[in-house]
Amino acid sequence: MNRSTMKYVSSKLVKTKVLLQDPALIPYVPRTASLTLSRLLLMLNRYKMVYIKPVCGSLGIGVIRVERNGALFRYRDGTHTYTFRTFRQMYVSIQHRIGSTPYLVQKGIVMLQLRHRPFDFRVMVQRNEKSIWECTGVVARLAHPKKAVTNGSQGGTIYAADEILSKVADITKAEKLVEEMKKIGLKTAKQFSASYPNMNELGLDIAVDRNLRLWILEVNTRPDPCPFTKLSDATMIETIVKYAKSYGRVYELKCNKAQKSVSTSHI
Questions:
Q1: In terms of pTM, does the model score above 0.70?
Q2: Could you give the domains of the chain?
Q3: What is the maximum span of the chain, computed from C-alpha positions, in angstroms?
């Protein structure tokens, strides 16, 4: 298919290459490559923790966290953790689990946490009614207590971005981080639309590490706006739905698995 007519891109590796074409976005992109035995070992030795993901997966399905801890190797798939004495034993087990599905390996980002639960952010960017890119929402996703992924579809809990950031940074810094996420979203939209001019919306998954540095974990070209339905303030989801209708997309907002936010004082 001609790039000029494409609205969606499924390959995470292709989307990573698009990001890396903009020098301003390169610092936000964790190292990402096709999964092979040698590459997984190399990146584990360097980073100690990585994520492997289906190249064309979605909703956090099939995402596995892999770690090296001294002489031991382990991976976490869903709510289960498996430990091995050798790398090869672990790799054979992973291969058996993923089968022939193409996977990638990505540098593991140690995300900020609340009560040992990691959280990241979904940044929604859309063309508005004048076809100009606009950031229409930023929301935080707190991982299910027994899982490594934050997706609402995997039982994550949704919070307002500034509410959860204020637990780990002062208000001014929290506001600056949210503004930086919005700028990254708009830069990403500009870069993607240069390659794929028919695109109308993007959903960025952005992590914040312990040094308050931002990382683009993934870019979704057909984003699910469900997390925004869980906020008490409906402003963001109303704008998202309105803009989507202007370019011909109607969402099915059946959001049963994501958990509605409660006060962060209860986390």
A1: yes
A2: 12-29+111-261 (3.30.470.20), 32-107 (3.30.1490)
A3: 58
